[in-house]
């Protein structure tokens, strides 16, 4: 699986958009970009994933560059409850030989302040 | 649905003691995983079971054994606990599928283990 690079920490004001970048310059054509977050040392929670098109769900939007070497997770209206560690993970999708295994880096600590 | 459940939530062991961490999922998922997380670090895969009846080593398997008891349950055993195994242990489950909604991995709440 391709490695990812994320900033160690970021701050965001409550109500503003939080934009979390991720670099994955060695991503392969069959690898997806996944985002998970971990709040207060709870179990990680899935947020969103995508292959090459931008994706949006009720939690966030995922913007993937055309060359797929980087992506940005966008929380459109951050709240205090979004304070967490955010992990960007690259791996093959369903049916691949990775059997769903996830390789976590250290992630980005997002702090949302009032 | 309870999702992924883990027992116990907390445990303190003395060096050399043994224990088994239990994990169960009620989502009919094929694959299950054990991760550990040390302070300030990301999760690291210990063992996984791609399907019932199979288990494989992950990144940090030394000092651990696993059993995929049935499709629902996947246990992690520490035969002789060491202080280096002090960590938070997370179990997860996943199933492959053509629909994207099946691609997310579900995690349990974790077991906080201290080895003295």
User: What is the residue-mean pLDDT of chain B, rounded to a whole number?
Assistant: 91
Backbone CA Rg of chain B = 14 Å
Structural class of chain A: mainly beta
Which protein chains are joined by the largest interface, and how many residues does each one contribute? Answer: A-B, 23 and 34 residues
Number of strands of chain A: 9
Instruction: Determine the number of helices of chain A (DSSP H or I, runs of at least 4 residues).
Output: 0
Oligomer: heterodimer
How many DSSP E strands of chain B?
11
Task: Provide the β-strand percentage band of chain B.
Answer: over 45%
What summary fits the major beta sheet of chain A? Answer: 5 strands, mixed
Gap between N and C termini of chain A, in Å? 37 Å
Computed over alpha carbons, the radius of gyration of chain A is 13 Å
The number of helical runs of chain B is 0
Low-pLDDT residue spans of chain B: none
Architecture overview:
- The complex is a heterodimer of chains A (114) and B (116).
- Chain A is 0% helix and 46% strand.
- The N and C termini of chain A lie far apart (37 Å).
- With 116 residues, chain B is mostly beta strands.
- Chain B is globular, with a radius of gyration of 14 Å.
- The chains are: A mainly beta (114), B mainly beta (116).
Short synopsis of the structure:
The complex is a heterodimer of chains A (114) and B (116). Chain A is mainly beta and 114 residues long.
SSE arrangement:
The complex is a heterodimer of chains A (114) and B (116).
Chain A: E1 9-13, E2 18-23, E3 31-38, E4 45-50, E5 55-56, E6 61-64, E7 70-75, E8 84-92, E9 108-113
Parallel strand pairs in A: 1-9
Antiparallel strand pairs in A: 2-7, 3-4, 3-8, 5-6, 6-7, 8-9
Chain B: E1 4-7, E2 10-13, E3 19-25, E4 31-37, E5 43-49, E6 56-57, E7 64-68, E8 74-78, E9 87-94, E10 106-107, E11 111-115
Parallel strand pairs in B: 2-11
Antiparallel strand pairs in B: 1-3, 3-8, 4-5, 4-9, 5-6, 7-8, 9-10, 9-11
């Amino acid at each position: 699986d391709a490695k990812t690079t994320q900033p160690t920490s970021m701050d965001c004001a409550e109500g503003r958009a939080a934009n979390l970048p991720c670099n994955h310059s060695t991503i392969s054509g069959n690898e997806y970009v996944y985002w998970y977050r971990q709040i207060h040392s709870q179990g990680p929670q899935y947020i969103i994933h995508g292959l090459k098109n931008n994706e949006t769900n009720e939690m966030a939007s995922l913007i993937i560059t055309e060359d797929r070497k980087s992506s940005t997770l966008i929380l459109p209206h951050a709240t205090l409850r979004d304070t967490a560690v955010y992990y960007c993970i690259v791996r093959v999708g369903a049916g691949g030989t990775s059997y769903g295994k996830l390789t976590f880096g250290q992630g980005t600590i997002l702090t949302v302040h009032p | 649905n309870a999702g992924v459940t883990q027992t116990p939530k907390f445990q303190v062991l003395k060096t050399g003691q043994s224990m088994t961490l239990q994990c169960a999922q009620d989502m009919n998922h094929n694959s299950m995983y054990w991760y550990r997380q040390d302070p300030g670090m990301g999760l690291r895969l210990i063992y996984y079971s791609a399907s019932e009846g199979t288990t494989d080593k992950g990144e940090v398997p030394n000092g651990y054994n696993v059993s995929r008891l049935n499709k629902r349950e996947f246990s992690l055993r520490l035969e002789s606990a060491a202080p280096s195994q002090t960590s938070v242990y997370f179990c997860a489950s996943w199933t492959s599928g053509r629909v994207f909604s099946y691609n997310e991995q579900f995690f349990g709440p974790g077991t906080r283990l201290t080895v003295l």
